[in-house]
Design brief:
Protein name: Nitroreductase domain-containing protein
InterPro entries: Nitroreductase, Nitroreductase-like
Pfam families: Nitroreductase (PF00881)
Organism: Coffea arabica (Arabian coffee)
Largest sheet: 7 strands, antiparallel
Helix content: 25-40%
Radius of gyration: 24 Å
GO molecular function, one term: oxidoreductase activity
């Protein structure tokens, strides 16, 4: 029988150093040995990688170079016991980026503020709001597109959720979470005329502090009727890498893409409450995305050869990430002609764009590897006819009583990131299983194994599931403490068993639903282990459970291209958003953990090379409320974010 102490003792000597996240601890003999072992693994992986044949086309060579750049970035930005990824040794508060982008001189259209989620009826037509857990099994009838519904969509996905204040500090929170509350993600809407809001087709930037739309340009009236069915519109996302790099240095590219995933899921869940479906238009290339959102107005950023500091306003450009198509549920299947869409978007460069982006900082630091990796992961235009409508599969219910009866709007608006866990709150086994059912990509009822992303909100993504979860169970009543594994793509199961430690049990735990592919690997108290793997943070051990999201990395890059690298982080962000919402819905809390020791996590699992990599950690449990911090309403708000 595999016991956790066996794994724990193998790492215990390497986990004794407790230190601040921005400092480099002195190396010890043990950490040097661990580093050497990890280096040997990395070198072995590099040596065994496939060398491109001499006769390969230059395009294939370029793709290999892009993949090499991605893996170089991924390995260079790993944290380890004896050193962290490169970043600032302190925070330059004088140049903390402004969290709110504005397009100065562009017209601002205020949006409506929906009734409080606590109201008996929160829809303007008087219909009862859907309960949180119900939308995982079926969507309500679609609402018409109007000023009211567009306002609610943004209010319940990307708007401010509260202000916090203590002493001389005041800061805002948003419905969509962000690493360090830095919010690198910007949002745009591209839409036909909207009743009571605007009488022509347009592109607008969403301003969350004002809860309004900054009109960037008017687009041709034939754009939507030519490409999309009626009652469709687009939401676009971009990232300002500088906002995250200010605090996190080279690892910021990872965190920006976590945040894109959280934003995708936030929009998907808010849209579900309105009876709308959401799908990533992944056939669009980087150039099309840039033109569609008007981001080609930013001056070109020339990447330096090494990290540099100075005045670089051009570093505040927005990197286009993706565009989501929003359409009513129940619509007949339709396809998107990417060739026609690309041709229509090519005309956007000739439009009159309004507004000048505000400056976010006076001085900057450029971590050049971020921008080289962003270049290597630019997605190409993929000309094909993408089918948009997929069958909606419910996520399964085994413990509906675990939920506290909150509406969907209550859960998404009141979600908060826990700062600390209390180390005592427990969770029933049935609640644990219920949460994991909602984390599965394919839903249940089709008889198919988990692979395709057909359940809410994963159905927004256009690729098969590539992310699993290694779970550290601490305080789940009726379930032994230990290490577990949630297989979210069952086609990977046999390979996972071969790729991980031979002593792992891979048995279904007691009471686990037959359709839930959860496996017990080893029993034992892993609280200290999970804490130390997550950069010595107590929050990883003081909850009911914590987890590491393990992506099928290098095979995915090889099969699909380097542009999948950020998308794997998006997928972890979508999964993380579900964990946030599930935790609040059952009456507790959760927090994403971006700081963890990458290769020591892989050593615990026994994985080698870059086939499976941990990309994001999470913890779920009872939060500790800091009574020194006072909450203020999101709107109108104090007006200062200091």
């Amino acid at each position: 029988m595999a016991e956790m102490p066996l794994l724990h003792h193998r790492l215990a000597l390497s986990l004794h150093h407790h230190h601040h996240l921005l400092l480099l601890p002195p190396p010890t003999t043990t950490t040097k040995r661990l580093s050497q072992r990890i280096l040997k693994i990395t070198m072995s992986t590099a040596a065994s990688s496939h060398s491109p044949p001499i006769h390969q086309h230059s395009l294939d060579q370029q793709q290999q170079q892009q993949k090499d750049q991605v893996l170089r970035y991924h390995n260079q930005t790993k944290h380890n016991f004896n050193n962290y990824a490169r970043g600032p040794y302190g925070l330059d508060w004088a140049n903390q980026p402004n969290p709110f982008r504005r397009y100065v001189s562009s017209p601002l259209l205020p949006l409506l503020h929906p009734p409080s989620p606590n109201s008996p009826a929160t829809t303007r037509d008087g219909s009862p709001p859907p309960l949180y857990h119900t939308v995982f099994n079926s969507l309500p009838s679609p609402k018409p597109i109007s000023k009211t519904t567009i306002s609610q969509l943004f209010y319940d996905s990307l708007a401010l959720s509260a202000w916090k204040t203590t002493g001389f500090s005041t800061w805002s929170l948003r419905v969509n979470p962000s690493s360090g509350n830095l919010h690198p993600t910007e949002a745009y809407i591209i839409a036909p005329p909207i009743d009571s809001l605007i009488d022509h087709s347009f592109v607008a930037h969403y301003a969350p502090k004002e809860h309004g739309l900054e009109i960037r340009t008017e687009i041709p009236s034939g754009f939507f009727p030519k490409i999309f069915p009626k009652n469709c519109f687009l939401i676009g996302f971009s990232s300002i890498f500088w906002r995250e790099a200010w605090k996190y240095g080279e690892r910021a590219f990872r965190y920006c893409n976590h945040d894109v995933g959280h934003a995708i899921a936030a929009v998907s869940m808010a849209a579900a409450g309105l009876g709308w479906e959401v799908k990533v238009l992944d056939g669009l290339g980087y150039d099309e995305l840039e033109k569609l959102m008007g981001l080609d107005v930013f001056p070109e950023f020339k990447i330096p050869s090494r990290p540099v500091k100075g005045k670089m306003p051009e570093i505040e450009f927005e990197h286009p990430d993706c565009v989501l198509l929003v359409f009513p549920s129940g619509i007949s299947d339709f396809g998107v002609d990417y060739k026609g869409l690309s041709l229509a978007i090519s005309q956007f460069s000739t439009l009159e764009w309004k507004g000048k982006p505000n400056l976010l900082s006076k001085e900057h630091v450029c971590w050049d590897i971020i921008y080289r990796t962003a270049e290597a992961t630019k997605n190409p235009l993929n000309i094909f006819n993408q089918s948009m409508v997929a069958p909606f599969l419910g996520s399964g219910d085994i413990s509906e009583s675990s939920y506290k009866g909150f509406s969907l709007r209550e859960v998404v608006r009141k979600r908060r990131s826990a700062v600390d866990m209390d180390g005592s709150t427990t969770m029933a086994r049935e609640t644990f299983y219920q949460i994991l059912l909602h984390c599965m990509p394919s839903g249940f009822g089709s008889g198919e194994k988990q692979r395709k992303q057909l359940a809410l909100p994963f159905r927004t993504l256009s690729w098969d599931c590539e992310v699993h979860a290694a779970l550290f169970v601490h305080r789940v009543v009726g379930l032994p403490k230990g290490l577990y594994f949630l297989v979210r793509n069952e086609e990977h199961l046999d390979d996972l068993r071969k790729s991980t430690r031979s002593e792992f049990k891979w048995t279904k735990p007691d009471g686990c639903p037959d359709e839930l592919p959860l496996y017990e690997l080893a029993k034992g108290d892993c609280r200290e282990l999970s804490k130390r793997l997550s950069c010595h943070q107590d929050i990883a051990s003081d909850g009911c459970f914590s987890l590491g999201m393990v992506a099928h990395l290098e095979p995915t890059l090889h099969e699909k291209g380097s542009w999948m690298y950020p998308r794997l982080f998006w997928e972890t962000g979508v999964l993380g958003q579900v964990l946030y919402l599930e935790a609040h819905a059952v009456g507790i809390s959760a927090t994403g953990i971006g700081c963890f020791f990458d290769d020591p996590v892989h050593e615990v699992l026994g994985v080698r090379g870059s086939k499976y990599q941990s990309l994001y950690h999470f913890t779920v449990g009872g939060p500790v409320i800091d009574k020194r911090i006072m909450s203020l309403p999101a709107y109108p708000g104090p007006g200062v974010d200091a």
